[in-house]
Write a structure and sequence with these properties.
Blueprint lengths: L1 E6 L9 H13 L4 E4 L9 H13 L4 E3 L12 H4 L3 H7 L6 E4 L2 E6 L27 H10 L4 E4 L6 E4 L8 E4 L13 E7 L3 E9 L4 E10 L9 E5 L1
Parallel strand pairs: 1-2, 2-3, 5-12, 6-8, 6-12
Antiparallel strand pairs: 1-9, 4-5, 7-8, 9-10, 10-11
């Protein structure tokens, strides 16, 4: 059984301080194979926000990986055009080049944020989601990942948990998103996802913040395709 923690959209500068601290405590108290942080770790890409985000991230237990989001670029600075990820890379390393391999698990990060593109993922629109993404080339990218046999595409952006199958290939590639850990809620409480994957199926459990602790708020269970010859695959995109 593989176990992932999926956190996203912390938005340091507008973070939910109690929820972000409790999420870190949860990560320390529960066994997992990988923690994935899928972008928008800052609100406006300011240095002070990055410093807070880096301190929080460094304190998380490993193994872990992170990729940037569209908020992780300076929001009102020429650096957004000429060096959009410079501040991010100073604290977290190359943007969008993170990866993780372990027995039965292969995770790759794809940076879909761009300095001049204000819309970003999920690659495919979330049904009944509270906002749009409209990623240029997103559906084509999702189709390629599905045809490659990727099990899960993890993302954030909409600030509400979701899980739905992509209408490509064998229909067993799922788009999965987690809630925000910021104050910028969109109809659902702050939270993150716990993902458990066995040989035959996947369970996605959305953990919601009550104001004092995290409790399961919604779950999805779905079948998994036959194991790949080398590794099960997942993609973390932002």
């Amino acid at each position: 059984m593989l176990r992932l923690l999926h956190m996203t959209d912390i938005h340091f500068g507008a973070e939910n301080t109690l929820a972000a601290a409790a999420a870190a405590d949860y990560a320390h108290g529960e066994p997992f194979d990988l923690l994935v942080l899928s972008g928008d770790i800052t609100q406006d890409g300011r240095p002070i926000e990055f410093e807070a985000a880096a301190r929080w991230y460094r304190a998380l237990p490993g193994p872990k990986m992170v990729t940037p989001g569209n908020h992780d670029m300076p929001q009102a600075h020429l650096a957004r055009l000429f060096d959009p990820f410079g501040r991010y890379e100073k604290r977290f390393g190359p943007a969008g080049s993170a990866w993780f391999d372990a027995p039965g698990l292969a995770v790759r990060a794809f940076n879909t944020a761009r300095g001049i593109q204000f819309r970003h993922h999920p690659l495919v629109e979330v049904p009944h989601g509270p906002m749009t993404g409209r990623v240029i080339g997103g559906p084509a990218g999702a189709r390629l990942l599905a045809e490659a046999g990727v099990d899960l595409i993890l993302s954030g952006h909409v600030h509400t948990p979701f899980a739905f199958p992509l209408p490509y290939a064998d229909g067993l590639t799922w788009s999965v998103g987690a809630a925000t850990l910021s104050l910028r809620e969109r109809g659902t409480p702050a939270g993150f996802n716990v993902i458990e994957a066995g040989p035959d199926g996947v369970l996605v459990k959305a953990m919601g913040w009550t104001g004092s602790r995290f409790e399961p708020s919604r779950t999805w269970a779905f079948d998994r395709r036959a194991a790949q010859p080398q590794n099960a695959q997942a993609a973390a995109s932002r």
